[in-house]
Amino acid sequence: MDAIFLQILNGLDKGGAYALIALGLTLVFGTLGVVNFAHGALFMLGAFCAVTLNRLLNVSYEQVSETEKDFLGNPLKEQVPYLQGWLGEDMGSFLLDYSVPLSIIMAIVVMGIVGVVMERGLIRHFYKRPHADQILVTFGLAIVIGELIRHYYGANPIPQSAPSAVSGAANVGAWVGLGNNVIYPWWRLVYFAFSAVVIFGVFAFLQFTTFGMVVRAGMQDRETVGLLGINIQQKFTIVFALAAIVAGVAGAMYTPILPPDYNMGMDFLVLSFVVVVVGGMGSLGGAVLAGFLLGILQSFASMSVVQNALPGIAQIIVYLVAVIVLLTLPRGLMGRKGVMED
Amino acid sequence: MSAAEDVSGDESREFERGTTNSVLHIDDVHKSFAGLHALSDVDLDVREGETHAIIGPNGAGKSTLLNVCVGRLKPDRGAVVFDGHVLTGKSPHEINQLGVARVFQTPEVFPDLSVIENVMVPALSKRDGHFSLNPFKSFAREKTLHSEAESVLESVGLQAHLSSPASSMSRGDKRRLELAMGLIQHPRLLLLDEPTAGMARHDTNATIDLLKKIKEGGMTKVIIEHDMHVVFSLADRISVLAGGRIIAQGTPDEVKNNPKVKEAYLGEEQV
Amino acid sequence: MAAALSKSKDWILFVGFSAVILLLPWILAPIGAGYPDLLQKIAIFGIFAIGFNILFGLTGYLSFGHAAFIGVGSYMSLWSFKLLTMNVLPAMIFSVALAGLFAFAIGYVSLRRSGIYFSILTLAFAQMSYNLAYSVLTPLTNGETGLQTRAIRTNPETSLLDGDIRIIDQALGVQELGVPTTNFFGLSMSGMSGFYFCAILLIICFFIAQRLTNSNFGMMLKAIKSNQNRLNYTGIHTRPYLIAAFVISGMYAGLAGSLMAVTDPIAGAERMQWTASGEVVLMTILGGVGTLIGPVVGASLIKYAEQKVSSWNEGILSSFFDFLPETLQHFMVSVSSLFVGESWHTTLGVLFMVVVIFLPGGLMEGFRRIIERVTGGKKSAKPGAVESGARAPQPAE
Question: A103-106: long-range contacts at Cβ-Cβ below 8 A with a sequence spacing of 24 or more?
């Protein structure tokens, strides 16, 4: 019981990341009709927003310590972030501690710009090209983005830490009456909650705003909406930017769980595409459902009991599920008729 | 599963009746989309060698009927029997291999292939069956088929641009190309979905002449058509479909004078 | 008449191709690429790309999982080296056969879907193979270390991963000093003889692909790409054709994987990673989808770029920009260093995008257009472009 509960928890944060990436992929695919293989790279860029902000906040000057001395008895030189110099030590270290959640703001700005530039500069010209061309050009872009990051940040993963207030482990078991055996990292709970909020936000945005209404109508029938005389080009740009932002913040917040490197985008992309296909191309609900489902399945498959019974299952479960779903439910779990069937 | 039993029952009934000269027999076909009856109680016999036109106002179910015949749609009830074979539930390629060719309403060709290749592909299918794995048999050496394709293309008036890609053709030319793709298979039954729609009068007349010529060759044809000029120039018999039902059937004269038809259909259009 | 003409054109193309491949060491020497290691890679990836093009170029089905067959071929060959003989012939036969079987199984399932679903299914199968090779299948693949040939084991207790038995060689009384090298009935598979071995196989593969493309079978595959639905109504059962194309291209990949093991007897799972599948897609696209020569051109260019561009460093760059004023020189060096050396994948990515955006027909299409312009708009006689197969250029709006 404890183990099962723990595995479900384990699946939630990963599932949250899958769901957020898949949500953006589906949004872009459903409205713009573009298969974006660079979406994983956007997730990775978001993660590097967190890294960058942390580095910016850490830009330091050297000062001679008044109190401490090094082992030779000389006054100790210490690195003081400018931030602490300007805002006082407490405020400065507080901001530094919270650099990951703060990077959400930066990710929103940066990813918004990246999204607009990418849509206007590249994606727009591929609306009417075959899916294979879209896949190829965005695949090329993903390689370029990855390599640029590697050039400037190196190839090694760069660990980020969660704020100290939530960096420990939570005794989740005690909350739900399962005793003290279910201990779970705080930050993963935060991530799950965060992804739930973002998903909820995106759905609410699409449900309750005029803009969202147009987007949903566009997902139902792209040509008709174009005929309505609505400035669809501008809407598409915004949708794409929104998808980029969602992927970006998902990446930024994921950094304490998985130290980002330039390649993480590709890994997540492959999985997210599987998630989208399992959920059903063009179905937002399906993307979210499949994201969490596959996240949880993956964590169950990595339990030692399961591993012993079916060796290797943890490595292939996601793909196996994808194959089975695609063969039995051609449109995925919640896909609509007529999407990508020609 | 009860639907499947229905089908087999219908089949045996068909054999008992033993209609001698019926090539295509549509037996009590029903088809509905989301509760809307597109076809109900449709019974139709197409006789060997005749040209049978199916007419009817827009939305009468003509295209649905054709799609049921070629296996694109599965009827809810009833069966389509061609030459003793139940077509219901068969896939399009199987139906074609039995000798039923179709000419589409919006021209469906192979845009990246050349005109002559477009015609040779169906010819290969006719000769070699639905799958033939002889990966080294040179396409360029299919001289017999090539000249056959040339003569069919000549008969539809497309001999001029044999090696240009089909995508570069006009819509009217594509229709003629499609006709050639059907003709080269020498099908026992040719289904034509509005073969002259979108053609200029001159081309329409040429197509009528062509189809008349084929008729002399004894090929059975089912034509769905809006243009009454075409229908009355070609058809031996006409079935009138309205609201998913056959409301009249007979020779052109009988149909022309049928009051129900006048009411449902002919009143709206110039004859 | 037309048939005879196209036939002689095919022969010119084949003879020309063979001549270029066999003279490659001399042709590439002036640009510093005439050494065996690179030449072997060009030939091997040429085979891989030609095979991939039989599927993607002719039928339009984009597989993102062809690297799996490379892996199957490599591992199978190594086991043949370890268990049977260092002669490469049985290794190649087993590899191609096994890759064909794998391709049949994967193709049979994946080809139930088309479009992007097909791409994802093939990707899923390849990722499964890759992940399994790293985990459960370690006894067969030796995991991250990779499978290697070893000396004959003296103690039967030694794992087969660490000691070979080579039954046939032993029975024939072949003397081994340390770890032996691969050979083709005594001909060494390293250096130039290795290249010529691969080159002759490439030529054979090219010949087969040419015959396939020009056959009735090839015509059906092109018709599938052009309008699969229409083909069904024409009486053709398209799935067996697609499966056959998938299996053939999987066998090509298996042969390529086997040759990788032949020229360098080690096999690792990274050959099965999906980036490797992406690489062959790029080669095909860059050269020209649906053309016969294009994939080989693409493979050569990318392998050459990989070796050359990745070896350039800042020193080479600053001497290259020496003629500029100092500040400009620094700037140019720092910008261009984004594209070379360790970062050469950036060049790859940019190339990918440029080709897809501006030249959907690939380099062969580009050559054809240039020749057309030079010869005054007449239809080019350049035999490389298979007109019907090449995708029509679509201008970006």
Answer: A103/A49, A103/A50, A103/A52, A103/A53, A103/A54, A103/A252, A104/A249, A104/A252, A104/A253, A106/A49, A106/A50, A106/A52, A106/A53, A106/A252
Say whether both B64 and B129 belong to one domain. no
Considering the domain architecture, whether residues B228 and B248 belong to the same structural domain is answered as: yes
DSSP 8-state symbol, C87: B
pLDDT of residue C384: 39
**Together in a domain, B262 and B129:** no
Chains B and A touch (3+ CB pairs under 8 A): no
Per-residue confidence (pLDDT) for residue B267, from 0 to 100 = 52
Q: Which domain holds residue B27?
A: 1-99+190-208+220-271
> Which burial class, exposed, middle or buried, applies to A228 when counting CB atoms under 10 A from its CB (0-12, 13-18, 19+)?
exposed
Facing residue for A141 by CB, picked from C343, C353, C396: C353
What's the CATH class of domain A2-59+99-328?
Answer: mainly alpha
Shortest CA distance from C56: residue in chain A: A132
The verdict on residue B167 lying in a domain is: yes
Q: What is the CATH number of the domain that holds B7?
A: 3.40.50.300
- B7 with B94, same domain: the answer is yes
Q: Minimal Cα–Cα distance from B111 to chain C, Å?
A: 6
pLDDT per residue as tens digits for the range B87-139: 888 888 999 999 999 888 888 899 999 999 999 999 999 998 888 887 788 88
Closest CA to C367 of C272, C298, C271, C318: C298
- How does pLDDT run across C171-203, given as a tens digit for each residue? 888 887 778 888 898 888 888 899 999 999 999
Give the N- to C-terminal CA distance of chain B in Å, as an integer.
46
Q: Please indicate if any CB of chain C lies within 8 Å of the CB of B109.
A: yes
pTM: 0.85
> Which residue of B lies nearest to C211 if distances are taken between CA atoms?
B136
Distance, in Å, from the CA atom of A101 to the CA atom of C249, rounded to the nearest integer, reads: 49
Stretches where chain C sits below pLDDT 50 are 1, 378-397
- Catalogue all structural domains in chain C, each as residue range(s) with its CATH number: 39-286 (1.10.3470)
Domain assignments of chain A as residue spans, ordered by start: 2-59+99-328
The ipTM value here is: 0.84
How high is the pLDDT of residue C326?
79
pLDDT in tens, B206-232: 888 888 887 777 789 999 887 888 888
Intervals of chain A under pLDDT 50: 339-342
Which residues in A lie closer than 8 A to residue C352 (C-beta atoms)?
136-137, 139-140, 143
Residues B145 and B230 in one domain: no
